[in-house]
Amino acid sequence: ALINDLLDYSSVNSQVHDIEDVDLGRVIKLSLGDLSKAIEEAGAEIVVPDYLPTVKGTPTLLERIFQNLIGNAIKYRRTEQPSRIEIGILA
Fold first, then answer.
1. Rounded Cα gap, residues 65 and 56, in angstroms
2. CA–centroid distance for 7 within its chain
3. The pairing of beta strand 20-23 with beta strand 54-57
4. In terms of Cα–Cα distance, which of 10, 14, 8 is closest to 63?
5. What element of type H or E holds 46?
6. How large is the average pLDDT for residues 18-23?
7. Residue 71 CB-half CA count within 13 A
8. CA-based, 20 to 30 A from 31: which of 14, 52, 63, 70?
9. Are 82 and 42 a contacting pair, CB within 8 Å?
């Protein structure tokens, strides 16, 4: 898995990506959908605000980032208590 992750990382750095407006709410929704099995198995609670901003970026890369962050939060948790993962905006 580490080797595959390193290969993914190197391919991201060598590719040219088009920057566009990206709805973070949609990106988070897609990420949570891809992680639904892991979320259910862990009994994790994911808290997402009703509104997330639109940012400049690459949709697939942002989705991959959020999948990794949320996936790691689920994977590296205290097993004796359910996880509560809050996604929000810092003011």
1. 14
2. 19
3. antiparallel
4. 8
5. strand 45-47
6. 91
7. 11
8. 14
9. yes
